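A student in our group prepared the protein record below, which I am reviewing. What it holds is a sequence and that sequence's fold in token form. My question to you is simply how this chain folds and whether the tokens agree. Do not assume that whoever made the record got everything right. I have pasted the whole thing underneath without changing anything:
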Amino acid sequence: MSGAEPPAPPVHARPITVEISRFWSPEEALAVFELIDDIRDKILALHGDHLREALKDQRGRGDPPESSGAGDAADEDRPF
């Protein structure tokens, strides 16, 4: 049975594909952009501290930064 495909993952573990139209009007594109921005703000309001910590861990910033280049402090305030 070398040709058998592995079973599909459960629904909650499957990736979600988002189709983005190339034919939106500027108003439609702006409305979607503003909606995404609002959702991001709400997620940050609820989970910002945990997200910042997770991002620091992912980026290896849990330890003190090795370089002190310009903009490092500003980057710490930006969650994404």
In short: The first helix runs from residue 26 to 59.
